[in-house]
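In keeping with the milestone schedule agreed at the kick-off meeting, the structural modelling team has produced records for the first pair of proteins. Each record is given below as a sequence line and a structure-token line. The laboratory manager (R.T.) confirmed that both were archived under the project's standard naming scheme.
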Amino acid sequence: MNQILYVQEKQNNRSLNTKKVVLFFAICIILFGVVLLGEGIYYIYQNKINEKVVPQPSDGNTNTQIPPPNIVLTQTEDNKLIMNIQSTVAISHLIYSWNNESAQTIEETGKTTIEEIIDIPIGENVLNLSVIDSNGNETKESKSFVIDLTKPVIGLDKVGNNIKISVVSETELSYITYRWNLEEEKREDMSTYEDKKNFEKIIGIPKGQNTLKIIAVDINQNESEKSIEIKGVTRAKTNVVKVDNCLEFTVVGEENIKTVEFTFNGKTYVMNTDTFGETNTVHYKVQMVEGMNYLKIVSTTQSDAVDTTTWKYEYKAQ
């Protein structure tokens, strides 16, 4: 009887120990599941945070290459300088100077496209420009500009019943134009001239009261203009006839004659108002010699209109 009770008690103890082991493993499995669940939740949470992160601008320490800004410098006809700048990164400020003079700073407000207009100094000058972006990157540009404000010099001289136009320039001339009154403008293109800094032309003066306008422009677009009021007259007319052994000439003008200069067989003679008085007609004769005789007559009116007549005649004495 006692043996049966002992065996039964031993079996009961074994059953209790088995339940403890099972309970222990059950608790371990539950704890392991809790750990796995915690790691999964943390992983999901971390991914959500990473999705919300906003990429920050480059601080220049990465390998990303930022292209330099595009700088275009343009000189205008009125001697202004336009600075056009385009950048992929916001621009902080510009620094510029002419030659080695003190620099000027233009502050910007994070723009990526800028247009600034500044004056260009007279003469030959070098612009030094620096563009600094918001990351502190600096791009430099230098360019030379020339402004010549020396204008061509126009001269007008009356030569008889003609006008001599002369233009002198320190810089090569581009073109010359001249016009009488309201007539069509005439143009001289200096590209066809060998000496492009000097120009001369003699033109006739139309009859009556006239206005002549001259414009000279050099290759730097410096322009000079000059006008003159002048009266054009008809030159005196000279007629020569042979009378016996003499050559007789008569000078007739629309206005009074100022001088008559004639050269006969190499000798020159001059007559003026002291000789023939205030008149528009002068008559004179010279005696020919045996053989060829040469006569040249130059008459000038009160308005300096000049006429030249030449005559030759072979004389044989009878």
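The second protein of the pair:
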Amino acid sequence: MKKLLAIITVLAMVLSLGTGPAFAWDPGPLVDGPSSEPSPPNPPLQEDIGDSTVTTTVSPTYTVTIPKNIPVSYDSTTEVAASLTPSHMVLDPGKKVAVYVKSDNAIGEVFRLINKNDDTSYATYNILKSDKNEKVQTGGVIAEFETGDETPYIFYVKPLSWDTVTSTGTYEDTLTFSLAYVNK
């Protein structure tokens, strides 16, 4: 008898856990007047309505990939093509990215490849813009990019003279490219 009473008590307790108040939203009548179209449901209570604003901030961003190495052939005066490759160009309106090039071994528009073991032995070259008609001076602008530019900018290294080469060895010049965020 005690077991039966215990089971009934436990069953009553379990059943009482599932009971409680239930709330529902009344959508209102489905037909309004002579139309057979359903009417829109009543809106939820005013305190249930709110606004959300989705925002983000985009700062200017840009990448320009420069060539790692630009090999030229000894005793050749043939131009060698190289490229600057823009990507992720998202700029403020009225702005652009200017790319400058300089060398500590250059004088004006004449750049020099200097022998690593004998700095009196060197070869000269120019840097030409993409049309091959305009020479770039050391510290000058070689290219400019705007929002959305993704096309590589081709420029040329044109050896001028090998007459001042007086010794064997490796000849090199370091070109330093710098970017500036400027007005158009």
